[in-house]
Amino acid sequence: ETGVTQTPRHLVMGMTNKKSLKCEQHLGHNAMYWYKQSAKKPLELMFVYNFKEQTENNSVPSRFSPECPNSSHLFLHLHTLQPEDSALYLCASSQQGQGEWNTEAFFGQGTRLTVV
Amino acid sequence: AQSVTQPDIHITVSEGASLELRCNYSYGATPYLFWYVQSPGQGLQLLLKYFSGDTLVQGIKGFEAEFKRSQSSFNLRKPSVHWSDAAEYFCAVAFIKAAGNKLTFGGGTRVLVKP
Predict the structure, then answer these.
(1) Burial zone of B52 (CB within 10 Å; 0-12 exposed, 13-18 middle, 19+ buried)
(2) Digits of tens for pLDDT over chain B (115 positions)?
(3) Which of A42, A96, A104 sits opposite B107 (nearest CB)?
(4) Any CB–CB contact under 8 A between B89 and chain A?
(5) What pLDDT shows up at residue B98?
(6) Would the pLDDT of A82 be above 70?
């Protein structure tokens, strides 16, 4: 098992569909992240979860809904997406200390999402 | 707000030649700096990181980077490039928060390696 696993690797969905992306980390980390990588834009942080609590929402539209049931799993629920939401969605995890930087972020391989 | 600039979108280099990728950042304090590499269809893999101490940092795959505070730069170098180094490289700055790290990425530099 790799450190951070994302499923599915590829997803094609219509604008009226509802789908979910899954991320699982096997590193014992306590923080998880969703990033969006579009074709002509830098990697963008979407959400941060620390100890299952959402600590950051980077002005992400409500059609993206994250869920973190425990420290090892992170979901991104998708509904009524737009074609411009087509991108590579990357999950990451890290270990957070108390006010100190502990580890760098470890990334999954991503889910390539195409909205048609 | 913090920002990261990678001035070169594409770089083509011959196999065996040296490589240098530029990274400049804007940040209110001494940052935590990273270089990640992304092969086609893959996630990001950490090459190296700078937190403090020696400003010349060694990483995996023969890469190194030098932090220059006066120039707000963290350039990545490799003395001799291999064909497998063809990938996209991202510089990132960390904003330290106890509640979860925020990485700000540069736009990336795509490296092509000629035989």
Answers:
(1) exposed
(2) 778 999 999 999 999 999 999 999 987 676 789 999 999 878 899 999 998 788 999 999 999 999 999 999 999 999 999 999 999 999 998 865 544 567 889 999 999 999 9
(3) A42
(4) no
(5) 47
(6) yes
Residue of chain B whose Cα is closest to the Cα of A90: B43
Instruction: State whether B43 and A31 contact (CB < 8 Å).
Output: no
B contacts of A100 (beta carbons < 8 Å)? 96, 98
Report phi then psi at A60, rounded to 5: -85, 135
Cα separation, A80 vs B69, in Å, equals 46
Q: Write the burial class of residue A63 (CB in 10 Å: 0-12 exposed, 13-18 middle, 19+ buried).
A: middle
* Interface test mutation site (partner A, options B101, B103, B105, max chain A beta carbons within 10 A): B101
CA distance A99 to A4: 24
* CB pairs A-B closer than 8 Å: 68
Interface probe with B: pick from A5, A107, A111, A112, most Cβ of B within 10 Å: A107
DSSP string, B19-87: EEE--EEE-SSPPEEEEEEE-TT--EEEEEEE-SS-SEEE-GGG-EEEEEGGGTEEEEEESS--GGG-E
- What's residue B4's pLDDT? 92
